[in-house]
Amino acid sequence: MKRLRPSHLAPSRRCQSTAAERDIEAEIRKGAQSYSAATSSEQTPSSTIEPPQWPSISTEDPLGPPPSPLPRDALRSAKLAALHARLSLSDKIPVQTLARTLVDASADPAPLFNNVNLAFLGQTLISYHTSEMLMCRYPRLPMQILHATMKAYGGDKTLFNVARSWGVEAAAAPGMEVDPGLLQFSLDKERGFNTTWGFVRPEAAFIEKYKWRRGISSRVVMDDDFGEALAAPEKEDELEEDGEEDDMGLDLPVERQLTLGDPDDKLNKSHNIHATFVRAVVGAIYTHCGREAARSFVKAHVLSRQLDLQQLFSFKLPTRELARLCAREEFEPPVARLLSETGRLSRTPVFVVGIFSGNDKLGEGSAASLDHARAKAAMNALKAWYLYSPGEDVRVPSDMLVEGSKPWQPVYVDIGEII
């Protein structure tokens, strides 16, 4: 005889897929059994047991109301349908997945219903396509400039502006009654998940205090995609003190939360939350539509932004660096020559100086003094060297993943930085 499962042990109605039910069924059963044991002694024949509403990964409150809208509510959201059409997403991407990208880990800690996993996948794709484009289009970029350029394309502030350009609005506070088409997060709750890759240095707690220098090689190996060191985890006693202070503002609207605590930290966290949503959208496109669709989306919304790379350069000794470059490439030593001048004895003189290597002019600069003009000419010569590009249509390694692609031709690889 088949034994029927009691009603209070039924799977949560929040689960919409068999995979989700299979993963959390044991947790629901465990929580429901403890709930039944606690109420069995006081239960009367006329009393009823409320069924559990949602599973939780927390050990303190295994059962309770869902902190985010149910997946089935996404089918009735006009904002979500408008966002789906505004981004020209494929019909293969269900609105339930798009609704999941709008749920931050600070709003719903359950990894089955927030955007952490999709954001980690999307961050990997954005970093990969950005790095291969920069390394093939500008093969002589120094690593520090490469890290700064990658942050300019895929950093939190840039992706925050991308999310705002999509017309995404933030909910006043997270909850199951919120429209699934709104970005749901809390600035006072800990997220507890990482969406970037990197290692915490043993000396991470003292880097900012003593201003220790970090080498380029260690940045590539230890730090994140942008060459920035990961912060050291806070101690447990500090987290408990901060948690007691933050509990006072958990239910406040987002506009009010911005006025509490450190405004810079909360502003950076808000930028990171919006950027996590954009990365989650890229991860959702890759999951449902494949590699080429995600690549086209990254090109259209991230890599299509205009960036002046010349503004990222800063030289301390440009003349010395240019002399080392000419010696390494076996050019003639650079010589500065005065090309023209005007108003030498006036209040606003202008000198035009050129840097020559033999008969070849490497750079030119103008300033109000001869030394400044020579330095600017050396800077322009170095920028012309570092910003060499074979063209905007240069092929990248991901082009070979397309069926019927032409044979691969190796791209130019520079021998390294000058100093």
From TrEMBL:
It holds the Pfam family DSRM_MRPL44. GO terms for cellular component: mitochondrion. Gene3D superfamilies: 3.30.160.20, Ribonuclease III domain (1.10.1520.10). Coiled coil: none annotated. The keyword Ribonucleoprotein applies. One of its GO terms (biological process) is RNA processing. It comes from the Eukaryota. Residues 20-30 have a biased composition (Basic and acidic residues). Residues 80-168 form the RNase III domain. Signal peptide: none annotated. Keywords: Mitochondrion, Ribonucleoprotein, Ribosomal protein, RNA-binding. Residues 33-59 have a biased composition (Polar residues). GO terms for molecular function: double-stranded RNA binding; ribonuclease III activity; structural constituent of ribosome. InterPro entries: dsRBD_dom (IPR014720), Ribosomal_mL44_DSRM_fung (IPR044443), Ribosomal_mL44_DSRM_metazoa (IPR044444), RNase_III_dom (IPR000999), RNase_III_sf (IPR036389). Belongs to the ribonuclease III family. Mitochondrion-specific ribosomal protein mL44 subfamily. This is Large ribosomal subunit protein mL44. It comes from Cytospora schulzeri.
